[in-house]
Hints:
The complex is a heterodimer of chains A (about 100) and B (about 140).
Chain A: H1 2-20, H2 28-53, H3 62-90, H4 95-100
Helix pairs in contact in A: 1-2, 1-3, 2-3
Chain B: H1 5-24, E1 28-33, E2 39-44, H2 47-71, H3 83-86, H4 90-127, H5 132-135
Amino acid sequence: MTLLTTVFAAIICTIIWYRGAPKSEMKVGHLCWMFWGASLMWFIDAIIEYGELGAEYFTPAPVDMLNDFYLGLSVVALGLIIWLVILLVKDPKGVVKAALFVKK
Amino acid sequence: MACFLVPAAQAVITSVAAKVMKSKEKEESVKIYLSDGSVEEATKIPFSAKLGWLNKLLWGGSALLAFEHLWHGEIVPFFPFLTAIKSGETAEMLAEMRSAGVMMSVLITAVWVGMLAVASVIEKRALRAPKPAEEGV
């Protein structure tokens, strides 16, 4: 469920990035790399777990599924916070800079 | 346990390599042929920028996986940071890093190599002048 949540986040971010490209004012590309990187890593985890559990891997207990989904959402939230920090620090539109200085 | 440390270590190495390469690279101006038949002057992105794709995949993935390990109590914010070391499961942890961690690094690198191949094809296509027969189509 964590893998699925992250893959969906990666797909949505990639679509948003493509719509705004090549300008990339919102730096959505960072989110894409982050979510795709994590998705690929969790895909390996999923393969290993499938190797141990077999078909049982696809029928998790509802409590486990809910907990994994909760983790997935938390991961997406953390990714968004990291992206927000990068966006505000890089400030490609100069919004933070404009808020800090008043023109005479 | 600590599988994300392998891609994180790779990220450190590739980040340093990208920095070194960036300082040595020169801009390469090229003419690209657009789909409407017009020609545009452009700068080819250097290899260090493409290595940056791998860095972002590795750093981003490692950061989110580190959070997952924190969630499951496999890493802690105090010394020795890894629960497996504290509980005397260092051998199991290293075995997991050798299997899952290395596989993660290999998969991400393989995806990046695939991206390089696709980017190379797109670049070659853009640099190639359209054939006269194609112009009328």
